[in-house]
């Protein structure tokens, strides 16, 4: 077939693939002329799309438990610290929300500090465990890419390392040991590791890619940010802040894309699947007396809790209509329904008349329900 | 988890064990008898390991 140029700029008769490489520039292509079928999958996979971040509260916006929290445990929602001295749990960690964020001047970061200057600590970890039910978009052999922003605020012992470890439960779905550091549970890989003191005092974005294992798909996945080796704080001597991190994203593929913004309301609702707080005096909840000393009450939830929650005993009371208070810490859970956005709680310690309606409010302290992994 | 003072709580109507009260890492809880709850799972593990026992309800 002959190539014909008709004198008005139209070329016909050109074979498929007949244009030499590098000859079609942007001006030659008509606007919107490239169809989806012509975009290679390797490029398409780098396009930004919604709901890509497997991490909840990665920008450290939600702190339902308060801030600062001067003990190991949950700090920012979904993030839990752990510290050890000579292999034994050590509670001397301070978790603080700090108004310092490399993505937005209005954002936050997670600050880690030692709470007791006289205590030596070997490891400090901050971990997020991802529920298996939230991992159904990945499969064995897929690549996951982690990105996060970090800056140190002081040096530690020169041997200290900063690692991010990918872990998975050792035995069954969503069944984690109570300790998440170093080799507990199943350490699947260490996507990121460098000498701690080599970290910058300015915000730096770090990225790392690792491969999904079969156990991650069927049991769950945890990301553990760890500073340590032996005696990382070198006798401490200071309660000064150690480091900050934020903007944590875990996404499918081998490319770290921009951090996915979710509204505060969305992020809060995601967190409240695992922990929810009913503040002291927040409202009245309808109930019904069951027997002579308890009122069964429906508490509304923004989303159903992950599982039957533990009820923190912190001195709260329940105040019932008729102007009476319960004995402290007398709430237990009624049978749990994982699809219900109401939670039936048994408010004990009341003198009541069976099958009579009462209303209940929380007083003296907040009511905290814990359905964490 | 460091667990102390584990004790059953009885349902005041059925008189059956319905929860466990315990102190875990210094925080007290009323814990449902549900194996998907992380605290109850750990209590069962530590009971099986012989590390703790759960006292009968009052």
Count the beta strands of chain A.
24
Strand content of chain B: 35-45%
Instruction: Please give the number of β-strands of chain B.
Output: 3
Q: SS-based structural class of chain A?
A: mainly beta
- Tell me, briefly, the overall form of chain B: globular
Give the terminus-to-terminus CA distance of chain A.
Answer: 68 Å
> Helix segment count of chain B?
1
SSE sequence of chain B, one letter per element: EEEH
Percent range of helical residues of chain A: under 10%
The main sheet of chain B orders its strands as 1-2-3
Give the strand content of chain A.
Answer: 35-45%
Broad structural category of chain B: alpha+beta
Order of helices and strands of chain A: EEHEEEEEEEEEEHEEHEEEEEEEEEE
Could you give a short account of the major beta sheet of chain B? 3 strands, antiparallel
N- to C-terminal separation of chain B? 25 Å
Oligomer: heterodimer
Rg measurement of chain A, Å: 27 Å
Mean pLDDT of chain A: 89
Number of helices of chain A: 3
- Radius of gyration based on Cα positions of chain B: 11 Å
């Amino acid at each position: 077939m002959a190539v014909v140029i008709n004198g008005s700029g139209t070329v016909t008769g050109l074979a498929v693939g007949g244009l030499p490489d590098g000859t079609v520039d942007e001006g030659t292509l008509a606007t919107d002329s490239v169809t989806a079928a012509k975009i290679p999958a390797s490029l398409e996979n780098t396009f930004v799309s919604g709901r890509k971040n497997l991490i909840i509260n990665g920008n450290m916006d939600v702190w339902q438990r308060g801030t600062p929290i001067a003990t190991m445990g949950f700090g920012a929602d979904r993030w839990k610290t752990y510290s050890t001295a000579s292999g034994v749990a050590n509670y001397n960690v301070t978790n603080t929300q700090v108004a310092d964020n490399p993505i937005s001047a209005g954002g936050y970061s997670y600050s880690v500090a030692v709470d007791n200057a006289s205590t030596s600590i070997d490891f400090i970890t901050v971990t997020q465990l991802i529920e298996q039910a939230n991992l159904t978009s990945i499969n064995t052999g897929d690549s996951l890419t982690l990105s996060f922003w970090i800056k140190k605020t002081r040096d530690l012992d020169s041997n200290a390392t900063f690692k991010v470890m990918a872990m998975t439960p050792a035995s069954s779905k969503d069944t984690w040991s109570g300790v998440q550091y170093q080799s507990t549970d199943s350490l699947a890989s260490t996507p990121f590791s460098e000498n701690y003191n080599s970290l910058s005092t300015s915000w730096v974005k770090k990225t790392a890619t690792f491969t999904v294992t079969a156990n991650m798909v069927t049991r769950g996945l945890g990301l553990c940010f760890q500073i340590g080796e032996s005696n990382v704080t070198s006798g401490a001597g200071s309660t000064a802040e150690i480091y900050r991190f934020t903007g944590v994203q875990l996404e499918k593929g081998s490319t770290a894309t921009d951090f996915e913004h979710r509204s505060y309301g969305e992020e809060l609702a995601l967190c409240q699947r695992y922990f929810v707080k009913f503040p002291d005096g927040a409202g009245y909840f309808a109930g019904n007396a069951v027997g002579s000393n308890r009122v069964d009450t429906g508490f509304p939830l923004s989303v159903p809790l992950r599982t039957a929650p533990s009820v923190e005993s912190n001195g709260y009371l329940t105040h019932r209509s008729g102007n009476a208070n319960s004995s402290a810490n007398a709430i237990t859970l009624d049978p749990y329904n994982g699809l219900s956005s109401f939670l039936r709680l048994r408010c004990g310690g009341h003198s009541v008349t069976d099958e009579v309606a009462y209303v209940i409010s929380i007083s003296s302290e907040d009511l905290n329900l814990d359905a964490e992994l | 988890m460091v667990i102390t003072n584990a004790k059953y709580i009885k349902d005041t109507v059925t008189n059956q064990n319905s929860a466990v009260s315990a102190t875990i890492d210094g925080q007290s809880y009323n814990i449902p008898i549900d194996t998907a709850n992380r605290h109850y799972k750990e209590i069962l593990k530590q009971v099986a390991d012989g590390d703790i026992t759960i006292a009968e309800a009052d």
